[in-house]
Amino acid sequence: MSSHPGSHEDMSEENLPSERSDAHDGAVAVAEDPFADPGLPPHQPRRQDIDERAARRSERAVAFMFTLSMVATLGFIAAYSLIPPSKIVYIFPFGHVSALNFSLGWSLGVALFCIGAGAVHWARTLMSDVEMPQERHPIEAEPEVKQKVLADFRQGASESQFGRRKLIRNTMFGALAMVPLAGVVLLRDLGPMPGTSLRHTAWRKGMQLINVNTNLPLRPEDVGVGSLTFAQPPGLNDNSDDYDDVIAKAALMIVRLKPEDIKDKREADWGHEGIVAFSKICTHVGCPISLYEQQTHHVLCPCHQSTFDLSDGGRVIFGPAGHALPQLRISVNDKGYLEALGDFTEPVGPSFWERG
C-alpha cells in the first residue's frame, strides 16, 4: 500500500522528533531535581511566646515537677529508713508484695520521671523552637565555624531563658542534686556498717548450744561418735527480722570424735570429751558446709569443694578456702548442757579481708 502526503503515517513521523525532544527535556528536569526541597514551614509562635501569663504557668508547672522529684527522693530515703524489709502488704492489683520494695520502686520512679517530664515540658513551652538547618561540614571545624558554634550556644542559652527563669533553674538544680542521694542510701545494702560487726558473732560466754532441728539444748550424750549436729545460739526464731543476719555468722557444726583421733592439742582443749564445735560457714565465700565424711573426719563445702579436716583444727586440705574453720570453745555447765565459753577468736566466714 502506497503512502501519500498528509497521511497518518507521515504525520506520525513528522511529530515523532518533537515528542521525543519534549520527553527528553522532561526526563532531564526530573533527573536534575527528583525531590524538590519544600523548605521549612513558616514558624508559628507558641502561646507562651506571646503571652507572658502562659509562660509563667509553664514555668510553675516545670518547677512543680522538679519539686515533686525532690519530695519523691525524700520519700525514697524515708521508706528505706523506716519500712522493715520483712513487711508484706496487699496492693491491688499486684497482690501481696514487699512494702519496702514497692515504696522504693515507686518513689525513685516518680523522682526520675518528674525530672524528665519537667525538662521536656520546659523545652517544649519555653525554650526556643526555631529550626535552624545547617549543611554538614567536616569533622574538624574551621575557626569561623567554632566561633559560630560558640555564638549559637550563647544564643541558645539566652533563648532557653535559663538565667531569666530562676524558679525553674533553682528547682532543677535541687532535683538533680537530690536524686543521687537515693543511690548513696542504697550503699547501705553492701554490708554491715564499719566497726567490729564482721569480727564478732552472737555467741557469748554461758550461752547454751541449741539443736537446730529440735530447738532444745544439747547434752553431750545427744552427740554420738561420728555424728554431725548443727547448733545455734538460744533465743533465735525463724520468723524474727534479724534471724538471717545472726545465723549467717553464728551457725555451728558439732561433731564428736574419739579423743585419740584429734591431732590438734588446742582443738582437744577447746572441746569436751571429743565433742568439738566449728563454724559452719566456709572461709572461701561463705557457703554453709553440710557434707561430712565420718571415716576421714572431713567436711566438704558443696559450693566450691573446699575440704576441711575437723580432726586437725579444721584446717584446709583441698579447695580455694584460705583459712581453717574457726573453732568455738565449749564446755558443759552445771546442768549438764553444752555451752559456749565465749565468741570465736577470729572472724567467721570469707577470708578476703586481712586478719591481723
Automatic annotation (TrEMBL):
Q: Where does the record place it?
A: Cell membrane
One Pfam family name from the record?
Rieske
Rieske domain sequence ranges = 244-339
Annotated InterPro entries? QcrA_N (IPR045603), Rieske_2Fe-2S (IPR017941), Rieske_2Fe-2S_sf (IPR036922), Rieske_Fe-S_prot (IPR014349), Rieske_Fe-S_prot_C (IPR005805)
Q: How does it sit in the membrane?
A: Multi-pass membrane protein
Q: Which UniProt keywords apply?
A: 2Fe-2S, Cell membrane, Disulfide bond, Electron transport, Iron, Iron-sulfur, Membrane, Metal-binding, Oxidoreductase, Respiratory chain, Transmembrane, Transmembrane helix, Transport
UniProt feature, compositional bias: Basic and acidic residues: 1-10
Identify the cofactor(s).
Answer: [2Fe-2S] cluster
Q: Does the entry feature the keyword Transcription, yes or no?
A: no
Specify where the region named Disordered lies, as residue ranges. 1-54
- What are the TM regions of this chain, as residue ranges? 61-83, 103-123, 167-187
The Swiss-Prot or TrEMBL record describes its family as follows:
Belongs to the Rieske iron-sulfur protein family.
Briefly, what is this protein's role?
Answer: Iron-sulfur subunit of the cytochrome bc1 complex, an essential component of the respiratory electron transport chain required for ATP synthesis. The bc1 complex catalyzes the oxidation of menaquinol and the reduction of cytochrome c in the respiratory chain. The bc1 complex operates through a Q-cycle mechanism that couples electron transfer to generation of the proton gradient that drives ATP synthesis.
Q: What is this protein called?
A: Cytochrome bc1 complex Rieske iron-sulfur subunit
Q: Which organism is it from?
A: Streptantibioticus parmotrematis
